[in-house]
Design goal:
Elements lengths: L1 H10 L6 H18 L9 H13 L13 H11 L7 H16 L37 H6 L18
Helix pairs in contact: 1-2, 2-5
Length: 165
Amino acid sequence: MLSGALKRFVMDNSHASIDTKKATQRTVELFLKAFGDAPASIVGGAKAGAFRDLLFALPASLGKRKSSLTLEEEAQRAREEGLPTLSGKNHMMHLSALWNQLHQREQVTRNPWTGWNFENGQKTCRALTASPASLYAPIPKPAEYRKQKPAPHPATPCAPRSHYG
């Protein structure tokens, strides 16, 4: 069963970091909530694809607040409110790492969590603190500081910049 694999290969692994254990446990719990516990050997590409699609539909804020909604209701809420959604990449990587352990022990024939594209998901926008080009620009000498005008604040690539603050 998937829950047993999580315990054996991640939670009981003394070499896994606390962050890895927490993140993998959250991912497996999300999968179990969506599809229930089952032998890992029956999870294939169709189920992995369904989980990926579900992740793309869930709000990025999932788990950051108490909610009594089902995963399907959370996905519907994200659609209706136009909320940013999960990319799913990290969740898929955690499951892939677990499946690699299972594959090495010949408990599964292949890893269905590898080879997925994550470019179709909605991206979470974050404001830039500096333009990428400015990170590699030469540092001016102190006398040159007085001659230069201040550079404009870089706008976030996701939304138009407001002139009011």
